[in-house]
Amino acid sequence: MKNIRYYIFILLLSSFSFYLMQKTINYIKDKDNIMLSIKNVEDKYFQYPTEPVIKDNTIIPGLNGLKVNVNKSYNKLKRVGNFNNQLLIYDEVKVNNKLANNKDKYIIKGNSKKNMVSILLYLDDINKIGNYDVPLNYIVSYSFFIDNYSKLKELIDYGSNILIYDISKNNINNLSIKLNKTKQINKYCFNELMNNSFKDLCTNNNYYSINTNIIKNNYLVNIKKEVSSGKLIVLKGNYQNELNIIISFIKSKGYTITNLDNHLNESM
C-alpha cells in the first residue's frame, strides 16, 4: 500500500513539475522579442476570407483568408535568429459558403483576387493538340474522351483539365471511373446552353458546371477586349493558329494561365 502511495506521489510530482516547466517555457517565450514582434503584426497580416458571389443560378468562387500561425512562425524565426515578416507561417481561414456546397450553380468565372486566367478549348480532333508551355482545359464529348482516353490522360498528367459537354445517365458513371484514374482533382461539365437537365445530371454525379461566353472567331481581338483576372476564356472553332499569340498576350498582361483545378480552388 505504501508503494502505491509512493508511486502516486511521484507521478503527481512529475506531472506538476512538467506543468510548471511548460508554464515557465511559455512565459519566457511570450517575453521573447521575436514572439512580441509576431504578436505585434498578427492582426496586421490577417486576411478575411472572401465569400463567393452568388446571383440567381451562377457563382463566382470565394477565397480563403489567412491568419498568422503564431507558434509555428515563432519556432521558424527562432531558428533564423531574428524577426522577418516574409518568413511568417500562415493558416487558412476557410470561406463559409464553399464552392463544393454549390454544385447546383453555374461557375461563370474564377476569383479575380487570384490574378489567374483559364483557357478552355473545344476539342474534336486529337491532331489539333499542340505543344504549349501552360496548362490548358479541353472541352470534349463523351465519345471523344473514350476514343482518345490515353492521350487525354497524358494531357491531364501534364497539368491540363478535361471538361465534358455531352454526357448521359448511361455513361457518366464510366466517365467518372476513368477520370478518377487520372491526376485531375475535380470533374467538370461545360454547359453552353445552361440546360438544367444536363446540370442536374452533373450535380448528382459530383461534377461542377461551367458556363461562360464562347469566342468563335476573331479570337485575339475579342480576348484583348475581354481578358481580366478570373476570366474563363472559351475558344471554339479554328483557334489553333492564334493560340500561341493569345497565350503570350495574356502573359504580357501579368496573368497566370492555369487549369480549372487550380483556378477555382479557394486557396490563395
The overall strand count is 13
Tally of contiguous helical segments: 10
Helix content: 25-40%
Topology order in helix (H) and strand (E) letters? HHEEEHEEEEHHEHEHEEHEHEH
Mean pLDDT: 90
Estimate the strand proportion: 15-25%
* Distance between the first and last residues' Cα: 61 Å
Which structural class do the helices and strands define?
Answer: alpha/beta
Q: Indicate the low-confidence ranges by residue numbers.
A: 12-27
Using only C-alpha atoms, the radius of gyration works out to: 26 Å
In brief, what are we looking at here?
The protein is of the alpha/beta class and 268 residues long. The protein is 40% helix and 18% strand.
Key attributes of the depicted protein:
268 residues; alpha/beta; eleven-stranded mixed β-sheet; 10 helices; 13 strands; elongated
